[in-house]
């Protein structure tokens, strides 16, 4: 499909307008980053701040909505009345990861360094919120299309309140749109734009081994009595083969035919893989990231204490939260069933093992042949001065499929400011302010183009 990149005087005016907005956009993003909107944290404060930003940008009915049993409110608003114009749903989330090993105060104190704004959530995904707000401001609160805006507060915690709300039969007609824009991914590097065409799904399961009534002295009882933690580690060690590929039969793989990005050198640098440490698995890096499963342990109960508090005791019970990333097309429940079968066949010493489904969501493949997708590509090319790449992403956004189901022929666009150097979820997370400016411009150009079709 040919990308029309002809620049108009209106495009030039939008560029100038977005550029003039950057000081205020940065200031408002700093205010958002200061709000510690982690799960169980200041989510209500963050939601109210987003409502205020949207109202100021012309979304007069912006409000918070309590859905399901979730503690973090949904922010919802609309801009209507554009007769004959399409409706675009804009999505982002205001909740963030905990500081983790990053100093708590530093994580929530926004700091600009070499053009990057550092702070937890500066990229993921408060930059997405500011993209939406910035696009509205670029049109002086009068966007050329109808809008529906969803900013959620439970994306990182995975509680699924919004997904449950969307899945209810009585809500099947809510949030229908002619295009969906999810501002929660990014380009391949600063200044190199991309549209995300695929997402892996995710399935989670808790694997529990119980061997003793209570912990006992490892000297008096160690040997005949099985240690639950040691048994659990033997189970986990069977999940990969000697090459590092996932060894669970029934987890699907597909051939990757998209852009061969990242290459190994770029991937190692972005991931921080130490010199001398080999990558695991087979196939290209893109194949392994986008269209092959991966398995990791993301939580652990019943492990021995830290080394400096070591204790001579056998563990009586141990549980691992096992996270499986899935290729698009595999259902999470089927993946956990495959995991359960695998573990049943590899139980150490024939010990009883419990495998409990802990949630998940399916992967996603975008419809890349539509005129709407082409307009998004053209908007990115105009904003960045170079053609965008279409690539996959190893992460998961379970909500995307539910949005697509609202109107199956409506394209879902995934883009944003979260290029690899943003280091989302890690200490030192940041967003490059040039990316925020370019992506805000791209979104404004895209909405303008949609209004002219």
From TrEMBL:
Q: Name one GO molecular function term.
A: peptidase activity
Q: Where is the Peptidase M20 dimerisation domain?
A: 199-348
The answer, when asked if Hydrolase is one of the entry's keywords, is yes
UniProt GO BP:
proteolysis
Extract the Pfam families matched here.
M20_dimer, Peptidase_M20
Query: Ligase among the record's keywords?
Result: no
Which UniProt key words apply to this protein? Hydrolase, Metal-binding, Protease
Entry's InterPro entries? Cyt/Met_Dipeptidase (IPR051458), Peptidase_M20 (IPR002933), Peptidase_M20_dimer (IPR011650)
Entries under PANTHER family matching the protein: BETA-ALA-HIS DIPEPTIDASE, SUCCINYL-DIAMINOPIMELATE DESUCCINYLASE
Q: What is this protein called?
A: Dipeptidase
């Amino acid at each position: 499909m040919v990308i029309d990149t002809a620049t108009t005087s209106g495009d030039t005016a939008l560029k100038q307008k977005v550029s003039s907005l950057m000081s205020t956009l940065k200031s408002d993003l700093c205010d958002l980053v200061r709000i510690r909107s982690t799960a169980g944290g200041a989510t209500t404060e963050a939601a109210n701040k987003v409502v205020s930003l949207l109202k100021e940008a012309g979304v007069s009915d912006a409000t918070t909505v309590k859905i399901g049993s979730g503690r973090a409110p949904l922010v919802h608003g609309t801009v209507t009345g554009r007769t004959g114009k399409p409706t675009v749903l804009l999505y982002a989330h205001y909740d963030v990861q905990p500081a983790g090993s990053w100093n708590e105060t530093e994580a929530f104190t926004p700091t600009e360094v070499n053009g990057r704004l550092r702070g937890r959530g500066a990229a993921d995904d408060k930059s997405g919120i500011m993209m939406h707000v910035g696009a509205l401001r670029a049109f002086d609160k009068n966007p050329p299309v109808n809008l529906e805006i969803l900013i959620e507060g439970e994306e990182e915690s995975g509680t699924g309140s919004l997904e449950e709300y969307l899945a209810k039969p009585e809500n099947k007609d809510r949030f229908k749109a002619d295009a969906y824009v999810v501002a929660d991914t990014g380009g391949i590097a600063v200044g190199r734009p991309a549209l995300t065409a695929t997402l892996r799904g995710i399935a989670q399961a808790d694997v529990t081994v119980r061997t003793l009534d209570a912990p006992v002295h490892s000297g008096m009882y160690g040997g005949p009595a099985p240690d639950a933690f040691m048994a659990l580690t033997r189970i986990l060690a069977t999940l990969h083969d000697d090459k590092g590929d996932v060894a669970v039969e029934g987890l699907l793989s597909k051939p990757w035919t998209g852009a061969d990005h990242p290459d190994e050198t770029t991937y190692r640098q972005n991931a921080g893989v130490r010199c001398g440490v080999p990558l695991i698995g087979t196939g290209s890096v893109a194949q392994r990231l986008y269209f092959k499963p991966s398995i990791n342990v993301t939580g652990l109960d019943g492990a021995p204490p830290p080394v400096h508090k070591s204790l001579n005791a056998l563990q009586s019970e141990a549980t691992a939260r096992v996270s499986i990333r899935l290729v698009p097309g595999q259902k999470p429940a089927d993946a956990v069933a495959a995991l359960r079968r695998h573990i049943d066949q590899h139980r150490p010493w024939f010990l009883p093992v419990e495998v409990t489904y802990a949630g998940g969501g399916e992967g996603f493949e975008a419809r890349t042949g539509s005129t709407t997708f082409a307009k998004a590509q053209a908007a990115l090319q105009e904003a960045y001065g170079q053609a965008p790449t279409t690539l996959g992403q190893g992460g998961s956004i379970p909500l995307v499929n539910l949005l697509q189901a609202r109107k199956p022929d409506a394209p879902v666009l995934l883009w944003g400011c979260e290029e690899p150097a943003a280091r989302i979820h890690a200490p030192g997370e940041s967003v490059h302010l040039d990316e925020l400016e370019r992506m805000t411009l791209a979104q404004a150009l895209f909405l303008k183009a949609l209004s002219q079709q």
